[in-house]
Structures are given as structure tokens and as C-alpha cells.
Amino acid sequence: MADSLVIVESPAKAKTIGKYLGSKYIVKASMGHIRDLPKSQIGVEVENDFNPKYITIRGKGSVLKELKDASKKVKHVFLAADPDREGEAIAWHLAHYLELNEGDTCRVVFNEITKQAVKDAFKTPRKINMDLVNAQQARRILDRLVGYKISPLLWKKVKKGLSAGRVQSVAVKLIIDRDNEIDAFIPEEYWSITAKLSQNGINFDGKYFSINGVKRELGKEADVQEVLQAMGGNPFTVVEVKEKERLRNPAPPFITSSLQQEAARKIGFRASKTMSVAQQLYEGVELGKEGTVGLITYMRTDSTRISPVAQEETKEYISEKYGPDFVPEQPRVYTKKNSNAQDAHEAIRPTSILRDPETMKPFLSRDQHRLYKLIWERYTSSQMSSAVLDTMTVDMESGDTIFRANGSKVKFAGFMKVYVEGNDDGTVEEHKFLPPLAVGDVITSESVEPKQHFTQPPPRYSEARLVRTLEELGIGRPSTYAPTLETIQKRGYVAMEEKKFMPTELGDLVIQLMEEFFPEILNAEFTANMEGNLDQVEEGTEDWVKVLAKFYETFEKRLEVAEDEMKEIEIQDEVSDEICEKCGKHLVYKMGRFGKFLACSGFPECRNTKPIVKDIGVACPKCAEGKIIERRSKKGRFFYGCDQYPGCDYVSWDKPTEKKCPSCESMLVEKRNRSGAKLQCVTCDYSEEVVDDDQEEQA
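^ that's the sequence the OP posted. Answer follows.
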């Protein structure tokens, strides 16, 4: 007969924990939060020390009744929500609803859902940590004050449905500021000179380095001509050779932000998808005879700490699998990435290194396996020896100029045998060694190629780059990144174009108003300091009411000024030349989550919408009468189809081109991945590389 009730957030977590605890425990799920501030009103008594007015979340009645009934039949109730502020708050609300005593040791936390970790946690239950609860309450109330005070103002002055928030407003401003940087950017000309060289049948490149002993930049074509004249047609002679070893250290194990960034780079996951799949891996997966097991540690963390037990198991695994040389002399300890890191949990790692990705593959979905493999490899490599690279730098003289060639090769792979961190541009580091060269060697020159370039503006923010920037600025916390990115798109403040954030006119307008009337909300330093204050509340060194009062003192004055001085703005939709086929009115351009689309100006009487199509200048290969146009799917992905649809049903995820295959005359389509693009024949195996214009500029 069960004598204890355990309450977690989700059924999946309940299922996993229930198998570990046995028949003396009933494990049930609260299905997330059970109480929250009301949606219909602000729900905060500002004059009464910001007292929150919590209500039961609609639809939770049957769940709460079930929990209440179950709690009356047992001696003990344990609250095992996630080990963070949010989880602590859920436990506190449950304790309040179930009328548990404030001094009860009812709170159970574990960083991983494995049998041993769960059983150990139940040996040492504790009281609910009110510092954690108050930190979460302060954040929730702070966001409610900003949202419910500014949003109605925007509704009245601009349009209904708008919202403002602390972290989301800063994120949108970052995107707008970057767009302004790009618009204001003035390209500057520069040149490079590359010598195509060969020695003993090995081809390599030498880059212009200096002229007359001075390292001078090539800003214009006249500078290039001066270098070519200084070369005087002389051969390339080796004047200096430097060879040395270089150590390369592994990247630290994942924290929430770095997991989101690397999952975007390497497997194309958006932040929200990464967190959803990670949650599944954390809560537990059925592993056949082994039962349900949590495969990774808690995924909302900003700590790179690893438990000594996990490190010891990993050390033994690496030594046995790869050899003793791949184990560092001392276990690796990684410092906090920033001073605000909480270090409350471990880094994200496999719960057991012995569950390698290949062994787990039959039990996981494709997405689960890809993310688990990424986490496993990153963690394993983080505990391995440094890689050793042999590097070689060669200076070659031609007339009064010096050209330099660099090469490297892996002498000892170390951690690189398992994993190498990705780059934002999707490129993969190549190690190309130079042929054996000595001072005095004369090198064969195939050609000398000058090339004009222009400096490029800073890149627009991808999800990964924006998460990294928010983290570097100290804005938000592990749990906030993914929902923030979702919110700013749902509100129509930004749109995604080719996986990059673009600000919308609406977003630009809202940020202009916020900058004028609520500059503190958009100030990155102010927002980061507020996060620091919330951390101090969590640590018990700051009073949450005082933190809110200090913020609200200035905020209230700003609200009064905005109410009086903010002018009403009417947003006019841009009218297109197209006519609605349903009612005959003009279609207007609207901005949605995935960019612009056309909608009837007669809304709400006529709700007709249609995508904006783009003619790519290629004839349809199926019907020969239509043209291929670019479209967007409901999920925002580009695809290509015939403009004669439904008469012609040609469709392709890959971009068709006018080029024909030299082998079979079939159409070539453009295939893209993180390492670049290539043209692929739709019929045979023929393919050729494509060099983008921007890649040429950066080469």
C-alpha cells in the first residue's frame, strides 16, 4: 500500500520516476503550473508591497482534485518539480493548494532522472526554498508590470494586440540596431594577391605579406600594381621556415545557450525545438529491458560544472575506448562563462557516458538521436586531452616582396577524435600541411592572382547569434531564450528571412516609442543589472519587494509622461496592385511570423490571404508552359512550384536552375547545407560546387 505521493510536472517524468520508486509511492503530474496571475487584470497590488493575486489556471480543476484526493490518502507528499526557480515556484503553489505545513521537508530535487539520483534525492528532502520562489515571483511580477502597463498604452496609441516585455524588447532592439548598422554600412575596397605554388607535386597557396619589408595593406588597384612591379617577375625563394607545435583545447560541455547555438549550427534546430527535444531526453526514454531512463542532465543551466562521479566514469570510458593518451593528466575544470552564471546545476551531459549514441539509436526518434549525439560528443570531448597540431609558416621572397604560406596537420587528435565545435558560418576547419620546404628552395609558381574585395556589413542575427549576444550581455536566463525568440516573431516585430531575423515596420515603430518613453526597458545594461538583482534575491542577499519598488518608482513616472505625451499613430497598410479574387478589393501587404504576405483590405468581412510569390526566372520542367515561383510553406520553409498550379503539380524543395547537366541534359537544382551549396542533377549523380558571391568576397 502506497504511503507517499510524489508530484512532478509531466506524465513522462512521472512514468520514469514511478518505475524507480516502487509501490510505496504514487507519482502524479501537475501538468505544469497550477496557479498564475489572472489574464483579465494586472493581478498585482502595487500599493500593498506588490502582493500577487494568484488564481487557479483554467482547466486545471480535475487535475487539482485528483492531487487533493490522493494527498489525503497518504502520510507524506513530496514535490519533485524541476530544480530551478520555476520548479520551486510550482512546488510552492502546490504546497499552498494542498495545505502542506510550511516547515515540511517536502521538496525533492535531482539534476538527472536516473535510478540512483532519484533514490538519493528522496533520502534528503528539504523545505521549499523561499529565496528561489521569491526570485521567480519577482521576475513574474516585473514582467507583468511591464507588459500590463505598457501594452494597453500601445493598444490605445498604435494598434490592438501589441505587447512589450523586458527581454523581448531588448532582443528586438538588437535586431533593429543591427539592421541600421547594415543600412549605414559603406563598403571599403581592398585587394589580395594569391600565388598558386607547387613543390614536389604538392600544390599550395602563398598570400602577399609585405613589400620592401613593410606590411602594407592593398587598398586599391594601384597598390596591387606596385606589388607586382616590385616582384619583377622573380621566382619565389624560401627565406624563412617556422615549425612548431600548437595545443588546441576542447570546448566546455554544453550550457543552455551553447546547446541552442550548436544545435542550430550543426543540426538545424531552432531554439524552441532544441529545448523540447532536450526535455524529452531529460524526462526519460524507454530503453527496452533497462526500462525508462533519463538520458541527459537538466537542460536549463548556465554552469559548466561536472560531478566528480561522472568525471571518473568518463575517464575510465575514454581510457578504455580511445587509449590512456586521450585522458588529460588532471580532470578538466571549466570556469564560468560570465559572472552572473548561477552554478546551481551541472552542465548538460549524458547521465551515463556508457550509453553511447550508436547504442541508443534504436530507442530514439531521429531528432532525439541527433540531439543526444551532439550532447554526448560535446561532453565526451570536453573531458579528453588537448589536440596537438604541427604548424608550419613559410616566408618566400619574390623581388622586393614577401609571400607567406601557412599549413597545419593534426599530430595527435585528442578531443578532435570525437568532436569539434562548429562555426556560425557553417565552415569546417581544414588542416592542410605544406610540402617539406627549406631556406633557399626555389618554388614553382603556377600563377599570381590579384583579386578585388569589398568589406562586408555585420551579419544579421540568426537564432544562435542572437542567443549568444543576449547571453554575453547578461540579458535573460537559460529558461528565457527560446520563449523570447518565439514571442518576438508571434507579435510580428521581426520575421525570419533565410534563417536570419529581419525587423518589421511594426517592430521598428514600437521600439521607437519604447526608446522615447521607456529607455530603461531597452537599455541592455539596465536589463542585465535587473537580472543580477533577481539573482541576489535567489541567493537571499536582496529583498524582492525592494527590488520591485526601486524599479517601479521610475517606471510609474515614465508611464504618466507616456500617457500624456505619446501621440496616436495610425499604421497604414501598403496597398498592392493585386485584386482580391473573392471580393474585388485591393490586397495589402501584411507582416506575419514568417515575413510578408498579402491579405484583403476588406478584413474582417473578407479574410482572403495569399502568399507573396517570387518568379525565379526558370521555366517549369514538367509542363514547359509555367514559370517556377518561390513560395513559403505554413512552417516558413521555402519551396518551389509551377505558377500553373493546380493545373501543373511540379514542386521541389531544392531551387531549380536554368543550367543543364553536362552528362544527361537534365535540370540542375541548387542544394544547400551548412557547409555551402552545390548544383545537383535531378536524374544522374553529376554535381558541381557553387561559390556564393559573399563567400568570394570573404575568400
